[in-house]
Amino acid sequence: MVHNGRRRALCLLILLGLLGLWSCTQDDGPVTVDFSKTRPVTDPAPSSSSDLLRVAVSAMVSPTETFHHYREFLRYLGSRTNRRVELVQRKTYGEVNELFARNEIHVGLVCSGPYVLGARRGIMELLVTPQISGSHEYRAYLIVPKDSPYRTLEDLRGRTFAFTDPDSHTGRWVPTSWVLRLGERPEDYFSKIIFTYSHDNSILAVAKGLVDGASVDSLIWDYYQAKDSRWTSKTRIIRRSQPFGIPPVVVSPALDPAVKETLRTVLLTMNEDPQGKAILDELHIDRFVPPQADWYESVEALQATLQNPTKGKDAAP
Prior knowledge:
Elements: H1 2-17, E1 38-40, E2 52-57, H2 63-81, E3 84-88, H3 93-101, E4 107-109, H4 112-121, E5 125-131, E6 137-138, E7 140-145, E8 160-163, H5 169-181, H6 186-189, E9 192-195, H7 199-207, E10 213-217, H8 218-227, E11 235-240, E12 244-245, E13 249-251, H9 257-268, H10 274-282, E14 287-289, H11 297-307, H12 309-312
Parallel strand pairs: 2-3, 2-4, 8-9, 8-10
Antiparallel strand pairs: 1-3, 4-13, 5-13, 5-14, 6-12, 7-10, 7-11
């Protein structure tokens, strides 16, 4: 059993290292990712650093997938704001939040969990929120291998489980609250827990049978199910959480108010521009809408239950 467990862990490490091949085509070419660096997504120009817009995209999907999906979006943002755009990536949500804390990031596409933590610290502000399929909400999906016998969370007791990121709302906080309601802790409930650091990694790990279950962002699972279901079709959803406020676009409080307003206007009207609409369609985003802070109160409340396990037993996400 120990030998098998080590072999599954080794396979997982190899698999996650190769995940960038998931949806790349021959035309995409190789993309090298270095978490300590940034990459320009607009043509460099001989101008001052004051026109540089540093944009962080949290690792809700793997780095290669992030660059592949958001490259045209960020180029559009640069052209409409007349600024050079630099994509900044880090391995964890927490690292992105620390960049905001040091005023090293201007704009971020972040998970709702890190937004709640960042807003609490005063290091980021809501700018706009994507509307997807007519909704500003999303859920956590508890997934298992399609042909497995698992039907409920209780069936996963003593099995292996994948979290995405320590600060992921749907990838860690929600499933942790589910286990707390059963009167247990995840580290005791599951035989082994791994962190995959992106939702597509977790989907692939479940599809390949390298873990018995995972909780993933419904937006990511639904996107791949619609665009390329080779791995999602090998998984099965056995539980859906209550709806939560969708991951927002945020800005640094230190960003020039005029720049904030320009960014807000560009994003809120992007769906009215043919080029912008084509990019949004590719990302399965209807449009961007003005956010409301109360959309994230349920995220805040759930995070609070994790600080108070006794209270968490009564939560029902």
